[in-house]
Amino acid sequence: MTSISLAAGRRSRSARAMLAGIAFASMTAFSGPAASAADTTTIRVLNWEPGGADYWKALVAEFETLNPTIKVELETVPFDRYPEVQGPYITTKSGPDVMENNAGLELFDRRRAYEELPPEVLAAGKDLITYSGGCLNFDTTKSCYGLPFGYQGNVMYYNKKVLAEAGLDAANPPKTWDEMNAACEKVKAVGKTCLAIGLSGIFPAYWNFPEVARNYLTEDDMRAMLAGKMPWTDPKMVNILKGLASITEKGWTNSSAPSITMLPDGADIFQSGNAAFAGTIISDAVNWAAFGKILGDENLGAMRWPTLVADAPLAGSFSGIESSVFGVTSWSDKKEAAFQFVKFIAGKENAELLTKVAGGISLNKNVDPSVLPKSQALSQILEIIKKPTLHAGVLLSGQEADALARGWQEVALGRLSIEDWTGRMQKALEQSPSKRQ
Amino acid sequence: MAETANLATAPNRIAGARKGFVRKETLIALLFVLPGLALAILFKLVPLLRGIWLSFLETRGFEDPTFAGLANYRTMLSDPSVHDSFRNALIAFATLPVWIILPLVLAFLLFQKTPGWKFFRAAFFLPYMIAPIVVGIMFRQILAPDGPLNAVLRAIGLAPLAIEWLNGPTSALLALTAVALWSFFGLGVLTYLSGLSTVSEEVVEAAKLDGARFWQLLFYIIMPLLKSVIGYWAVLCTSGILIWMFPLIYALTKGGPGTATVLPEFLVFTTTFQFLDRGLGAAIGMALFVFVAIVSAFVVRRMYVEGAQKK
User: Fold this and answer.
1) How far away is chain B from the Cα of A426, in angstroms, using its nearest Cα?
2) Domain tally for chain A?
3) Sign of dihedral through CA atoms A119, A122, A126, A129?
């Protein structure tokens, strides 16, 4: 009896000791991660992945290494669908902690959704060539809502192989509208599209409009546009519409142009080697690196858009703008961590990643140009961007950008006159909340 | 005495008990109805009232809205893109007979056990199971100028029919409606088949013995017997055409070329979220609500009239 009770007592003690051990082990096992989880702040970043997936993977890894207490959760949306995702977040005042935005009017329109950058964050902008596109009315003395990292703007890429096939001199691509027309005739004769283009969505406003606008507008005219003081009935604006219309009227483009978007459809036509020219941008999506990878760097060239008015003051300039800016949302409850991310975006570490991983063109002055990849198209771009001017595309309101694309589609199909297109553009201007006087 | 008193109070007690029972029953009924009612108020009535209120506000971008009276409605009435969108909606709605007849014909063929009916019963329903956004992306490729549809048309000697489907103003809208019909008709076939299962085969056989052919059977026997099912399907199609096309428009045409495929629901979206004009977007939404309500009321009323006549 005694031995049984002793044995039972020993078993009971062992069981108690075992339970205590498990409890202690559990406490020690869970206390570590619980403590670190409490110290970690996770911020959500809405973006369209400028520079590509590899660059963003590297960017997040670098940021998290430099800021071990902050985790980044990316919400990536394709560029052409971005406004449709961002709009509901802003309207409902909820969602990500950091948002990407096109610089200029689009950001000014949405400034209520962003927190004004405090001086210590804005200080990170001092190393940038420019950051005015993130500040109200392109003025760095006024409120700023976001910081950029890359330089952006429009160029026309050409496929040397297609030009050679059409009997054209790839070393001397067309410089004027007439030369372009002659080149297009030859390209069409070999059964290829001359200029790959898609007129749906926001691309006509951002990628095509500024390149024709430079032939007719001065920088003061552009500032007047931004303020809503440049009517579309002004002869200069009408000439821009005529210039755009001539692209499709002359038959330079693919027949599907009115019903497709430039990204991905129009860019696909160029990348497939079925088109001689494509008007896109210098960095981020569909840039020289992406085209060079598919077509071969040796087959890719970059040039300014051909000029319509050779002696126009801005005809030889580059429509440049900070690629995009990142700002902290007004509803975020993790503002400190979010501001830290914005500072990183403008910093040297990110600039070097952009250059090395994405082949982008950074705005940070401290990046060594020698780290840039070797490419003829990139060298041409670096020459083109030396003479910058304002980017007229980012000065258009959402209504104007939409009316521009839809009007051009109908003009291309011969269903709308320039006069009626002008009327629609003027109406869109009058209906733009950000441009109402 | 006591017995008399008991007899006198008995009916009162019964009446009281009945009253109590009725009250309890009403209370239980109310308890059952209440959650549904609360949900309907919270998720239907409140958003509707908020939408109506928003349509009277001027919203400058993201700044605080101000009361604007009927200004948004005036803007809407003078806006050509709004006119275009409702005109497009009417054109799309005009295809309703096809939406009603096509699935009915196919369902009747299946009902008659036409060779291969088992395969087609599954095949017809398949498109309905593909997400509309995916359908849109698929057909963007199929309907491209050099896409598979035109390649087939050219290969079989029908080159003149190989048009640029999404470039023409009429062809784009009809192509969009046809794609929506392709995506939706499987549900119609299934709906009609469930209705046909209530039709006696003897009636069909008797009509056949009297010499009725396929179309005669369909129009003079089947359609009168399925009037309520046809009415129900017509209401579903009406809402399908007028308020469920958004993902297809978004993926297929983005409303283009021009405004050729902009339907009011797409315009509500672009006005609200792209142009940031929530007040005007709400006003267009209200106009669409009234438009759909009128059209649906007409169809539903027809259904109830038919139902009442049957009784």
Assistant:
1) 13
2) 2
3) negative
